[in-house]
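Private note to self, pasted from the team thread so I don't lose it. Backbone tokens:
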């Protein structure tokens, strides 16, 4: 086995656009209230893009921050992966555009779509790349402009989502004790729940024709209660499974970093796992649900604020459209 073949998170970073949309702002758009949104979701505000800002623009800022944190330059990268359901365009890939904006070319660049689990799906790809080519320097970004697919007439969904990007830089590592080592990733999917959370309008199942009017199917549609129950169940079970197969217990976990969709979901998962308070990372109040960006934003914030000291174990878990779900263990 090559001595560099442990994948290690060397740097983390995130970016959210400047503009903030508060619950009070939403009260002017749909029939809702700060009280309903706060009690049902925990969200107080979310960041939304300025006109003309696309996913690659958010990804660029997050990537720069992660590279700076790693002490590396764009030129050092060999691979760029962007997980997103809201890329700049169907083609070219967001990762290709990001590569160009970083001022480099000739690297491997690809997008992934695993919705809110996209970052964890990306981490497994990164581990595979490092195992195959241990000298690789991989940038993984979760970047979303969910407000580009938000139906501002649907109060059941428009209060939930925000825009942002989170990134990590991963390299091979010779020393198993190095900080940021990805111990394991565990992923699942099930297409049976596809129609509970979807965006279909303008895609190949529902193609555009000239003169078509944009309708609800062009935006996120979700059966919230069904998704809620599945999200709690799936994140709990995949978290238990990944700990068990690594010979670890919940007592070993310093910080649970769950997908930030709804504080009630986060609390329920934490409670079922026996984790609460300081051991569960929450920022959904400030960013809302940013899909593939949510876990890496939380990870970057948690590291920057000292919540992941040397030797601590982070348990990452997510659930999203597809359905997809998964977990990862990272030792800092
Ligand atoms: O990121 C991928 C994973 N996504 C998720 O995990 C999201 C999972 N789902 C959820 O977080 C929750 O189901 C929601 C936050 C979406 C909804 O919360 P809920 O407690 O499941 O509410 P509900 O859908 O059962 O709606 C309860 C009531 C309804 O009124 P009636 O029928 O009881 O009269 C809704 O019409 O709340 C009403 N409602 C609202 N009221 C004020 C729905 N949205 C709003 C709103 N403001 N924004």
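Design output:
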């Amino acid at each position: 086995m090559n001595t560099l073949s442990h994948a290690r998170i060397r740097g983390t970073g995130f970016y959210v656009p400047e503009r903030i949309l508060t619950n009070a702002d939403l009260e002017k758009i749909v029939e809702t209230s700060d009280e309903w949104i706060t009690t049902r979701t925990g969200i107080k505000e979310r960041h939304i893009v300025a006109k003309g800002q696309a996913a690659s623009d958010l990804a660029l800022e997050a990537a720069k921050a992660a590279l700076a944190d790693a002490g590396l330059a764009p030129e050092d990268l060999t691979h760029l992966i962007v997980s997103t359901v809201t890329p700049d365009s169907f083609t070219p890939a967001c990762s290709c555009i990001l590569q160009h904006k970083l001022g480099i070319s000739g690297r491997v660049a690809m997008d992934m779509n695993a919705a809110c689990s996209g970052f964890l799906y990306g981490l497994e790809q990164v581990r595979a790349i490092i195992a195959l080519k241990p000298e690789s320097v991989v940038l993984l970004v979760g970047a979303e402009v969910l407000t580009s697919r938000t139906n501002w007439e649907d109060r059941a969904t428009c209060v939930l989502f925000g825009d942002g990007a989170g990134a990590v830089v991963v390299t091979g590592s010779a020393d198993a004790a190095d900080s940021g080592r990805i111990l394991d990733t565990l992923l699942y999917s099930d297409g049976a729940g596809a129609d509970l959370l979807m965006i279909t309008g303008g895609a190949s199942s529902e193609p555009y024709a000239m003169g078509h009017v944009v309708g609800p199917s062009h935006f996120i549609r979700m059966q919230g209660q069904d998704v809620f129950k599945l999200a709690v169940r799936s994140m709990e079970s995949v978290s238990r499974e990944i700990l068990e197969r690594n010979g670890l217990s919940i007592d070993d976990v310093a910080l649970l970093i769950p997908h930030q969709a709804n504080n009630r979901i986060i609390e329920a998962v934490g409670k079922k796992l026996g984790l609460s308070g300081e051991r569960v990372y929450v920022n959904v109040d400030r960013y809302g649900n940013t899909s593939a960006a949510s876990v890496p934003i939380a990870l970057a914030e948690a590291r920057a604020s000292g919540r992941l000291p040397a030797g601590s174990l982070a348990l990452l878990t997510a659930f999203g459209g597809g359905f997809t779900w998964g977990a990862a263990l990272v030792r800092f």
